[in-house]
Design brief:
about 40% helix, Rossmann fold, alpha/beta, 10 strands, single chain, two-stranded antiparallel ribbon
Length: about 300
């Protein structure tokens, strides 16, 4: 498969080369249209045995297990797992808060690196890649396809996405749960500035539609540690009113609210069986991707 050779600010060829040997696996059966490396909900031909079932007229006689017949005097047919490709759908939050970054990189830039790298690796193994940029709705949307020209369009959209406006992530995820065709690996990249109770319904909806859901929760170190030392004017990057405050007066309340939010988020993703990764954007995105890819490979080995 030919790939996009034009330079991209969010793609590092050295990182791509180091991650090339780690496959991207789905955690749930996928429905594709070509042979691939992901389990299918349908039976087919592969080297991995699935189960025996009783013979019914019309079954291929070549699939009869004569040893089982010799032991039981009944006809049984061997069934094997079918392998297929997957649809990988990135949902990138492009609301105003994603333009924040205190360590030389913003959350949207970090999201571009994660999505661009996974998208490249997925396309290299024959999977379809799509992208939805979301803020107060679906701003841009490219349904998944598996060709080099489409991957270039995905990269163009990713590169030119501009964070602005309010977030309506919960309503948008419900919309995407209904509009993404067939089963897909849905990878959400956002700071998740949403009520966790609302996100719980979104994750459950996506799972109900048989999507494999992964979430990269991107937070800036200042949001996690609140290391402000003098009076500051805090601006709402999504258009709300600004607040002038003395950090020492609000630090304890902020930390308690943050801790409660993170505890609730952890509870929700566990209940929803979401592949959740909380990341401080001053950390190496390559290491975050290694944990993501290796964790999925290990989960496939345990199935």
């Amino acid at each position: 498969m030919q790939i996009d050779r034009s330079p991209r600010s969010f793609l590092d060829t050295a990182v791509l080369a180091r991650l090339a040997g780690v496959p991207l696996f789905a955690r749930r059966p996928m429905q594709g249209n070509v042979s691939g490396r992901h389990a299918s909900p349908h039976r087919g031909s592969s080297v991995e045995f699935a189960e025996y079932r009783k013979y019914v007229p019309g079954d291929d006689l070549r699939r009869l297990d004569w040893r089982a017949y010799g032991r039981s005097d009944r006809f049984y047919v061997k069934e094997f797992e079918a392998d297929t490709n997957l649809r990988c759908c990135f949902v990138v939050d492009t609301s105003g808060s994603m333009n924040f970054g205190s360590k030389g990189i913003t959350k949207i830039e970090y999201a571009r690196r994660i999505a661009g790298t996974i998208g490249y690796l997925a396309s290299q193994q024959g999977d379809a890649v799509g992208l939805a940029c979301v803020a107060n709705g679906v701003v841009h949307n490219l349904p998944p396809k598996r060709n080099a020209a489409h991957l270039r369009l995905v990269f163009d959209m990713l590169e030119h996405s501009k964070p602005k406006g309010e977030t309506q992530l919960a309503a948008t995820l419900h919309e995407l749960a209904e509009t993404i065709r067939q089963r897909a690996l849905v990878i959400i990249l956002s700071d998740l500035f949403v009520d966790p109770a609302l996100l719980s319904g979104c994750f459950q909806h996506l799972r109900f539609r048989h999507h494999d859901v992964a979430v990269f929760h991107l937070l800036d170190p200042l949001e996690l540690e609140f290391q402000f030392r003098r009076p500051m004017r805090f601006l709402d990057m999504e258009g709300g009113p600004s607040i002038f405050a003395e950090p020492n007066d609000i630090a304890d309340r902020y930390q308690k609210a943050l801790d409660a939010y993170l505890v609730e988020m952890t509870k929700i993703v566990r209940e929803s069986a979401v592949d959740y990764h909380r990341i401080s954007i001053d950390q190496s995105y390559e290491q975050a991707l290694v944990r993501f890819l290796v964790g999925r490979a290990q989960a496939k080995g345990l199935r």
